[in-house]
Write a structure and sequence with these properties.
Blueprint: H1 10-17, H2 19-26, H3 31-48, H4 63-85, E1 96-97, E2 103-104, E3 106-111, H5 117-125, E4 134-140, H6 143-157, E5 164-169, H7 175-181, E6 185-192, H8 206-220, E7 227-233, H9 236-249, E8 254-258, E9 277-279, H10 286-294, E10 302-311, E11 322-325, E12 330-331, E13 338-344, E14 347-351, E15 362-364, E16 380-382, H11 465-475
Parallel strand pairs: 3-4, 3-6, 4-5, 6-7, 14-16
Antiparallel strand pairs: 1-2, 7-10, 8-10, 9-10, 11-13, 11-15, 12-13, 13-14
């Protein structure tokens, strides 16, 4: 079983614990501003969600809100992305040999860098790469924000770090031009919380903008091990954007090597849900949790959607069948233990007795020749003992007096024939089923109404009603 979001290493946790020192060096706070920090964080979160109309100008223009962003939203995004980067199958960015025998450093090109959140998250997550000569090309339309990020990175890594930070003003459509201008071999192209905010021209659809991004990315992935990592918030918009991107990638000779365990059609495209993963807040430093509590924005879980793309002809040969967990645990009548939906090469599967497998886990599956079919989602039911995430080694075959279940004619499972709505059902029901709190998984994400670059609002929806009104009153003269 491969865990997609393992705990952070002690070195990573130590770096996060010392982040306030670096932040104070880059953007110092006096006593009054430090006392006001929780209120500023709550105000910025409210503006980015329920009161987006208040953002008449970028919040980077306000030193108070800039400080709130760097001390709250930036650290949480570092935690979120570092948890993913710690286990993602990325090759070591070892320098390549040039034509004259010289060493050519590898290149990380980050689109929409903001305050270098992704570069810092990579430095935090992979301490073993800190001594390698990596060139980090940062692209953004706000040079001031990138300057703050470079100053913060220097405070964390030190002025002698072999990572060379290059700042360039530009959008995603300038990626290829800036990459070709760098004397480094592409290793990773990244974009975090950028795709869902792409603004289309009046004559363009959002899909056209995604195609523009894919065209740029495909033109620079010329190294055999070069890849592209696109990360979006775990909201409906973020997840659907990643699913659409994956669908279009094949037209540019690209395929997803992760999280998808196959290169076939996405089994969630026709469902009501979207591809995303949730995980706990392990690794978040105590000071960040304390600030979140003071701002009434405690994090119960983190979530994200992502796709790791590479040229199709560089994908390794497929081995046995694998399944990627894509849902929270749920109780299904007639199945042993807690079930989980999973993505496989044969479509959506429902794994019996997989409640303890974490979100995003990649499991080996020994699919029986004949599988029952979940009547709600059409997913093949993989019995306990036939997948790596099961706690049961063997499971007896249940009697079926009506013959083999055919995929095209699903019938309800369970002795009572209860027609309970599952989250992956393709059939639109007038009302979704209600699950008891005891059955709902603690990691079930909460969908946020909005998303913003460098912020995943799913775990933090803003202040409760009474506290929100109180916060407004406190800002009035």
């Amino acid at each position: 079983m491969h865990h997609l979001f393992p705990p952070l290493s002690p070195a990573a946790c130590s770096t996060l614990a010392n982040l306030p020192r670096a932040l104070d060096a880059v953007l110092p706070l006096n006593g009054a501003h430090r006392r006001d920090l929780p209120a500023a964080v709550a105000e910025l979160s409210l503006q980015l969600t329920a009161e987006r109309s208040a953002l008449s100008r970028p919040y980077w223009a306000s030193p108070r809100l800039t400080s709130a962003y760097l001390r709250y939203f930036l650290p949480w995004n570092i935690v979120r992305q570092a948890r993913l980067l710690a286990a993602l199958p990325l090759p070591t960015p070892t320098p390549r040999a040039g034509a004259q025998g010289e060493e050519i450093p590898r290149l990380l090109a980050d689109m929409g860098s903001g305050p270098l959140t992704f570069a810092i998250a990579l430095w935090v997550a992979r301490p073993e790469w800190r001594t390698l000569p990596l060139t980090v090309l940062c692209l953004d339309l706000s040079p001031h924000v990138m300057e703050l990020g470079r100053a913060l990175f220097t405070e964390l890594a030190g002025p002698a770090s072999p990572w060379r930070i290059v700042l360039r003003r530009g959008g995603v459509d300038t990626l290829a031009r800036h990459v070709h201008a760098c004397s480094a071999a592409p290793w990773l192209i990244s974009a975090a919380n950028v795709l869902n905010e792409l603004k289309s021209q009046p004559s363009q659809e959002r899909g056209d903008r995604l195609e523009d991004v894919l065209e740029q990315v495909a033109s620079v992935l010329d190294a055999p091990d070069a890849q592209a990592l696109l990360i979006e918030p775990g909201t409906r918009l973020g997840g659907k954007t990643v699913m659409r991107l994956r669908e279009l990638a094949a037209e540019y000779g690209l395929a997803a090597s992760s999280p998808c365990p196959h290169t076939g059609p996405c089994p969630l495209l026709e469902s009501r849900t979207w591809c995303h993963f949730t995980f706990d807040t392990q690794g978040a430093p105590a000071w960040l949790n304390k600030l979140s509590e003071a701002a009434s924005l405690q994090k119960e879980a983190l979530s994200l959607s992502f796709a790791l793309l590479r040229p199709q002809d560089s994908l390794p040969a497929a081995g046995g069948e694998q399944a990627r967990i894509v849902s929270a645990p749920l109780r299904v009548p007639g199945l042993r233990g807690m079930g989980r939906y999973a993505c496989t090469a044969h479509g959506l599967a429902l794994l019996e007795d997989a409640g303890h497998a974490p979100s995003g886990a990649l499991l080996a599956v020994n699919r029986p020749r004949q599988c029952r079919v979940d009547g709600k989602s059409g997913a093949a039911i993989i019995p306990a003992g036939s997948h790596e995430g099961s706690t049961c080694r063997q499971t007896p075959e249940r009697p079926d007096s009506s013959g083999t279940q055919q995929p095209g004619r699903p019938r309800p499972h369970g002795d009572d024939g209860e027609q309970r709505e599952h989250p992956y059902s393709r059939r639109q029901q007038p009302r979704p089923a209600r699950h008891s709190r005891r059955q709902r998984a603690p990691e079930q994400p909460r969908e946020a109404p909005m998303s913003r670059r460098e912020e995943d609002h799913a775990p933090a929806r803003g202040l409760p009603g009474q506290k929100r009104r109180a916060a407004r009153r406190s800002r009035k003269p």
